[in-house]
Amino acid sequence: MRSETIVAVSTPRGVGGVAVVRLSGPLAKELALQHLSVSTLLPRHSHYARFSVGNSFVDEVLAVWFPSPHSYSGEDMVEFSCHGSLFVQQAIVHALLDGGARLAEPGEFTLRAFLNGKLNLSQAEAVADLIDSATPAQHRLAVSQLRGGYAHKLEELRQRLLDLASLLELELDFSQEDVEFADRTLLRQTLAELDGEVSLLVGSFSLGNALKHGIPVAIVGRPNAGKSSLLNALLNDDRALVSDIPGTTRDTIEESLTLSGITFRFIDTAGLRHSDDVVESMGVERSRKAVAEADVVLYVHDATTPWQTPDLDLSDKQVIYVCNKIDLAPAASVPSPSVGLSSKTGIGLDKLKSSLVDLFSSRLSDHSVHLSNERHYQALLQVRKALEAASQGLAVDLPSDLVAVDLRDALYHLGTITGQVSSDDLLSNIFSRFCIGK
Ligand SMILES: Nc1nc2c(ncn2[C@@H]2O[C@H](COP(=O)(O)OP(=O)(O)OP(=O)(O)O)[C@@H](O)[C@H]2O)c(=O)[nH]1
Ligand SMILES: [Mg+2]
Q1: 184: which of 44, 153, 164, 318 lies 20 to 30 Å off by Cα?
Q2: Which domains does the chain have, with CATH numbers?
Q3: Is the pLDDT of residue 207 over 80?
Q4: Does residue 144 line the site of ligand 1, with CB under 6 A?
């Protein structure tokens, strides 16, 4: 399969100033020369040439030849930059298809890069994240994964564990002679080190995942406190219905906003109170669910009313108490950290925004790694389980073949992260999410 030459437009579909057509595979250079007005292509030089099909001129292009293995895919590649007309893009692609190339599948250039050892699986996935990144925080996550990030560290530990597992298995061949090839102290130490690393990554996932998809922030409080007004003020938009009738909001309303490079998903909810109205009660149920799923809770209190302790489980949440309507009354004394503001005049809004950002910026500015890939997270949970089983096995002196089974299990799941272990299913699952041309 990999002997096929593939072609695709790598720039977004549609008209642009310039479009890029990529060609990868053994025929790349030969096919390119059939259509270009130059007689040769120098490696990694930009050639200004006419692209023709037979006698008919298509466009003036810049063509670059990247000989294998020094290309993105690791194969011979030619990239054509042409004018961004749909007709020109298609004419170039069709000419190359007629010459023997076929259309690339989604992510196929990157898949080939992985198969040719240009990047590991975790890095290939980071390429997709990098393309999707729209905020500095998402960009930072993708770049750290692309550079190898935690994958290098895991790979190093995997290698050490692999050596120990092999020694342990060797003992089975000498089971009559009661020998120990695998140093048990070293094994325990390696298991503990790996477990520490894995636990750190697993623990970083909730923040990493939130940064990737937006940090969920639930806006809750009593009816009429001004939750919907606060959402609108934050978004600077008339997004949610506001009225002086308590119980205006029924369903949850979600909108994203990026503050200082971090994306927050604000969820406006129905005011919390007991109600005999079936629909309103359903809304209140959703409010509680929104709180359960949120990382941050903005608890909105109406400064013109007496303070009431929220009837909510906020134990593992980061809570900011918001004392709203301070244009009508002085900020009531509410639990800290709190912000007094007016959704109506906008006073205090900047303070609230910076308090939100402050909750995360300190954890972002340090150089700690944040796991953001769900697949890696699931694999690491399996690794942790296997490591625990192996440690317990060692502690109670289980026969080495049983311990070895747990070690192999841990090795297997570690290997799926960087791609030492991969199946066609796994690969097609990962790469089908890419766009065509990448
Ligand atoms: N003066 C003043 N009025 C406000 C402020 N914030 C909200 N209001 C008013 O308070 C009333 C209730 O506002 P909403 O935003 O609908 O309140 P809510 O918390 O979303 O209410 P429910 O959806 O019913 O739970 C409306 O009449 C708003 O105009 C404020 O900061 N100052
Ligand atoms: Mg509301």
Answers
A1: 153
A2: 6-118 (3.30.1360.120), 126-209+373-418 (1.20.120.430), 214-365 (3.40.50.300)
A3: yes
A4: no
